[in-house]
Backbone:
């Protein structure tokens, strides 16, 4: 009897941690900087739902929206350190990772055609560029296309000359810096989480973004004018810590791959509709003047901004830019 008790107690001590461990789900922290109601916020929650379902609860995804965990630059560092496992930043923010090539997609008017833009994200060029991120410990799982940018400002932006002397918030991309300078504005890199207050207090005069961000962050309440210019594009990459992803247990990998694929499809469908709806809601709010460019105004902006393409040849190399033109079907206007 005593022997049996000792054996049972030993088994309990030996078994208990293992038994508990077998039930512990693998935690994936997914941090992002936008509202849970923005397309990225919704897609992050969709990923959580699908990942948990397809792995039968072996994975638990914790989503942290609105920069509640990390701001733009910090989240990239946290991913490299493995403190967070998933992010979906704008690819215009990859400079600090030491991979400059992604800025090329900010060349003005390059990615105006939605279908072509999607084709570029699926092209071998992007797969090739992904290896550069891999070398930095960051693995791109997918690209999420959030459509074209409009400008907001505290004054009407009708002609390129209207930008002169304005302080414009930009994301970290060197191309966006060149665009602002070409327009005669003063570019200021700023984290997304600081933008509302900066617009409200006049630290910056304006910014460019997609309508769904302008709506969900309430930028339209602290800006007087919006110009529907569609001059650039906002693309996210769903990125993970490479070591973490490579080391995933075999029984959760297929479920997570499926969740990535399906949440990407969900994102692309959601974003297009949300941005159209958001622009209507912003107009209907009556809180901001919305100006839709005439074809002549658009041509004047294109003419003004084309020199940025030439200027950036020295940064990216002409061959690389030509490859991107080919993939996107873009022909630079002279
Ligand atoms: C911005 O910083 O303006 C956007 O890229 C934020 C986002 O992630 O949509």
Residues:
């Amino acid at each position: 009897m005593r022997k049996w008790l000792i054996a049972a107690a030993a088994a309990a001590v030996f078994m208990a941690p293992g038994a508990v461990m077998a039930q512990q789900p693998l935690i994936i922290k997914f941090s992002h900087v936008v509202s849970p109601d923005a397309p990225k916020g919704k897609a992050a929650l969709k990923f959580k739902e699908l990942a948990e379902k397809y792995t039968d609860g072996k994975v638990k995804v914790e989503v942290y929206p609105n920069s509640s965990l990390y701001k733009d630059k910090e989240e990239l560092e946290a991913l490299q350190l493995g403190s967070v496992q998933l992010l979906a930043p704008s690819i215009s923010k990859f400079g600090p990772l030491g991979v400059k090539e992604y800025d090329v997609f900010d060349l003005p008017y390059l990615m105006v055609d939605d279908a072509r833009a999607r084709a570029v994200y699926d092209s071998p060029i992007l797969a090739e560029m992904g290896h550069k991120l891999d070398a930095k410990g960051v693995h791109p799982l997918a690209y999420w296309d959030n459509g074209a940018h409009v400008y907001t400002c505290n004054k009407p932006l009708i002609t390129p000359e209207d930008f002169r002397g304005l302080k414009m918030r930009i994301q970290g991309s060197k191309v966006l810096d060149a665009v602002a300078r070409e327009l005669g504005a003063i570019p200021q890199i700023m984290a997304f989480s600081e933008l509302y207050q900066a617009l409200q207090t006049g630290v910056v005069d304006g910014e460019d973004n997609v309508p769904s961000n302008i709506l969900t962050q309430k930028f339209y309440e602290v800006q007087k004018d919006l110009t529907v210019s569609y001059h650039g594009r906002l693309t996210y990459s769903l990125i993970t810590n490479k070591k973490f992803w490579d080391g995933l247990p075999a029984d959760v990998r297929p479920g997570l791959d499926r969740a990535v694929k399906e949440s990407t499809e969900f994102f692309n469908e959601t974003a297009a509709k949300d941005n159209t709806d958001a622009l209507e809601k912003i107009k209907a709010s009556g809180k901001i003047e919305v100006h839709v460019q005439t074809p002549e105004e658009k041509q004047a902006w294109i003419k003004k901004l084309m020199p940025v393409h030439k200027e950036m040849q020295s940064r990216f190399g002409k061959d690389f830019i030509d490859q991107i033109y080919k993939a996107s079907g873009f022909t630079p206007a002279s």
Notes: Residues 225 and 289 are 5 Å apart (CA to CA). Residues 33-34, 40, 90, 171, 192, 209, 213, 234 surround (2S)-2-hydroxybutanedioic acid (CB under 6 Å). The first helix runs from residue 2 to 23. The chain has one domain: 22-328.
